[in-house]
Amino acid sequence: MSVKRVLSKLSIEDSESPSASLLGFHLDFVPRRLASSRRRFLIAVGSFLSILSLLVLAYISFQPPLVLTEDNIIQPDPTLFWNRKAPLLGPPTSRFRDNLRNDTQYITSWISAGWTNDVMTYSNLIYLAMLTERVPIIGPFTPSHIGGDAGNILFSEVFDIEFLSKTIGIPVLEWSEVKNSSSEEVEDLGCWSVWEAVRVGGSEPRLTNALSLQGLDISYTAGPTWLQKIPGYEHDPHAHFWSIASLLYSPERENNLKEPQPSKVHGAVLPPDEHLACFDYLYYVCAHTSFEFERDISPSWRFVARHFRWAPRLQNIADGYLRRIFKVSDNEAIPPYIAIHARRANDFIVYCRDVPKEDCFPSIPTYRRRIAEIQEETRERLGIDPQHVIMLSDEADPAWWDSIRVEGWYTTDHVAEDTSNKYGRWYPVLIDAVIQSSGIGIIGMEQSTMSLLAGRRVKDWHKGVYKSVKWGTPNADDH
Which residues cross the membrane (predicted)? Predict the structure, then answer.
């Protein structure tokens, strides 16, 4: 459309000049010379704006794409962070409901595996809390792989819960802060069972003794079968985060409410609670791919578990062990080192089947080769040449440990250190985990989630190197 035709369509009401508006006539009746000048002016302005747009477009086109890094991702402002316990009405109460705010929604779940898998389960719970804008309440770690007499240990004794909450921008609560651990009250609660939905042929929620720690009597409602990532596939019990989250919102909540199962103690029949949402088991959960912690894309690792930094006291204890092992004084820096995590106990031997133990598990020459690979990479990429190597293993054979020391590799000695008596039965495992994650390199074993998390920590916390060793046959790690 020509400028003249545009001008002829303008009215006093929508785009007239001040003089025309004051005189009360239409632009069509402006004297020809004035209209001609105005047209030239508008054409000039239009041309200028067109050229400017082309220049801006060209500038943008030649700019490199924005890559999200730690430097340009918007991080929560710690100065604006609220008190982590603000979602509670006060100190722990004998009944959990007496300590929850009416204007806040919460979410919880329970653990039922080995310690490292439980760490991943709590991470999944917290990530689900972030997706659904709820406050997560997590329980302690239970000694499923350590021995029942070891007792439970608080999450905050292992990980820095204040750092975690501030970093991810939401308060993370512990059950011991919500309900008094000495309370004898057994409270009824309605929850969803994810395990029933994803376990083909299963008809029970995931069993766990963790419920008794909070004095809860759960009435479960089985989740819909479509929660399973591949419905009906018995070899993969994973569910997607958003599928689970949808049960907390309309219409999926209402559409999938079945008859609740009576609780074990009181026989209570309750629909899933809306104030405190709860699920029986959240280990097998992913955003995209099953066993997602093995991949860099894992949001549960990237947004939650990578911020599970060790509690300061635990880190200091482990640092003391490293100084004594390496014979380093308190005034000296701990030298960069490579840790090896070697799983050799019965829980891994069963996977060797008919292969002899020494042929099944990685050999010393295999570890030597991997050490050399890490040293080469750290020299080239970081300018660091780690010469200290420390072996961490559940092997009980003294002869095997002698062969490790012949290599000049360091070891921890929890018997000589009297670790269990000084700190408790949990601490040999915890100290080893801190040592695994505090070096510049880590060699772990495939299929070990403890190795996996140690490798993720070394890579993300220290920009170090993680090598996973294959095993099962004598030459499994040849490459």
Answer: 41-62
